[in-house]
Amino acid sequence: METAKVPERQHNWADNITYRAARVHAPRTLEEVQDLVRGSQKVRALGSRHSFNAIADTPADLISLEHFDQVGPIDHARHTVTIAGGVRYGQLCEQLNRAGYALPNLASLPHISVAGASATATHGSGNHNGSLATAVSALEVVTADGSLRIFSREQHGDTFAGMVVALGGLGIVTRLTLDLVPHFEVRQDVYEKLPLNPFADHFDEITSSAYSVSSFMDWRGESINQVWLKRRIADISPTFEPPAEWFGAQRALAKLHPLPGISAINCTEQLGVPGPWYERLPHFRLAFTPSSGEELQSEYLVPRPHAITALHAINGLRDHISPILQISEIRTVAADDLWMSPFYKQDCVAIHFTWQKNWPAVKGVLPLIESALAPFDARPHWGKLFTMPASQLATLYPKLPDFRDLLRTYDPDGKFRNAFLDTYIFGG
Q: 73: cis peptide before it, omega within 30°?
């Protein structure tokens, strides 16, 4: 087992969070994980470090599951795959594709860990696509006393719905089982300069026009900069040809990056070229690092009935937002039944902000955004930056009291609790 204070691992990907952990461990066996948990007073799992806040932090022991990278077995009868807790989507997807399977959806980056993305309800886009956590049907977890527990949707019912998006508070997830769908192919077409009025007037039609739809804007002009349409090949005619003009937007004739002036070389294939699901649903290719981490991110999930009103409210803050913004993305996500998911019992529109790496400026504008979105019960993404008071956040999650009880059941002494959970889960 590797145990060390490794400087690289004491920072998150964006380098805006310095972990306080006294020790970073990289166990190679399940038994070593159990021993570490059993012997620690405070411990957390360290995933791919793509969270922008201190959700993964702890004052004592961080456990990296980087050596837990096994994919399989695939259960062909149940159409599931079981993977180790350190597996990232890029690695998993390539192996699933070779076996003729797919996941229903992916996030914009394939570089993130499955366990971390599931624990924070990370998502892609699509009116009928739930968050990545909705694919999880079973978990193997090392709980606070070092015991290995197996939880499943089939055996634990509604309680399991509280265990998937657990924010790291249930224990160290060493294995996950995911539901699979058959392999499918996707084409990606991009449109530029969609006027805001047609976007608002035809929002439902626009977001339902492809399997996955992402709209990028900078809140500077009177149009959506780009709309990325990811269509399943099986859903369209073999002779399908996208129109040159679409709701006032023009089809792009060259590959684009969401940020103006940036090369599209690290973006997934566009211009309607068909390809496997895992090479089209993300925005960025696995072979390339999408950026150096010189950014900060925030995201708010708004119940779908309030989508247009909420976007108008954000538009009213454009003079505050645009000077420190790199790009904003608007996506749709289907409802689920996971207790601590921002999509619990409600279809949502996700309003995402990629900021310049200037925390004082971002910290100043986030309360303005949160105040503007407060009438719509917007929930912040668990892994991104927000300033919403814990008391307000608590009112947005009807199952929060049950989730607290669940964590107390399996972690009575708070071994997996940290400042983030103490504030937003137990302090609200």
A: yes
